[in-house]
Amino acid sequence: MTTATNFKTIELFGGGGGGADLATTLGLGNSTGGNDIQFDVLSGDGIVSEANGAGAGGEFLISGSDAGGGVFAGGDIRLAPGAGSGGGADGMIILDGDVTVTGTLSLTYLLSGAGSPEGVTAGPVGAFYSRTDGAGGNSQYLKQSGAGNTGWVPAGPMVEEEFTSVGVASFVTGRAVFQDPLTLGIRNLDVYWNGVLQRQGGTEDYTVVFGGASATITFLVTPPASDLITISYLPE
């Protein structure tokens, strides 16, 4: 196994006219298992090359530094393509093949976590949030407004619940209902009485009181007993 103690050594070994490629320069051809080419800060910011013909291991490994004796944050690995200028396109990171992530993946437009992101998680307009403890209707959220942690809206679909009236005016949903800001104009709650959509044409057929774990819908006219009530809503 050939070890280069720093990046300058690569230049001395393989740079210049007629120089071999990196793998050849580092002595690729050993029959031991392991990583073919390894950038390993644990060995002094060096580069290690091993053949991978007879054992398990990666073909190319870049390792961030681990904590030493004391309290240190682990070393980051950053890939930073250049920004284009003068009309040129920005650089990209291109992965040709499958990608396996064993830890947490955090991207600007793809976020995840437990609980609703509203008022908690910041993101740009157009971002997506996957709720790890979500259920039907609120396992995905879209960022529709604002630059901070507000403006998140459940992506749906809307949840439906059916009730059979027993001659009372109020019905309580089984889950929390998304209380949308008026500026978003989200259609987040519909009520049907015997298949007819209520509150049509601005007529106030019922009122809604949002609670922490549910919402209470109260009709201004009490539905007769045995009438079918359907409530369709975006869950929070």
Structural notes for this entry:
- The protein is mainly beta.
- It folds into three domains: 1-98, no CATH class; 101-156, no CATH class; 159-233, no CATH class.
- It is 5% helix and 26% strand.
- The chain is built from two helices and 15 strands.
- It has helices at 7-14, 22-25; strands at 2-4, 37-40, 46-49, 60-63, 110-113, 128-131, 140-143, 152-154, 159-164, 170-172, 189-193, 196-197, 206-210, 215-219, 228-233.
- A four-stranded mixed β-sheet has the order 1-3-2-4.
- The chain is elongated, with a radius of gyration of 29 Å.
- It starts with a strand and ends with a strand.
- The model is unreliable at 1-21, 25-35 and 41-47 (pLDDT under 50).
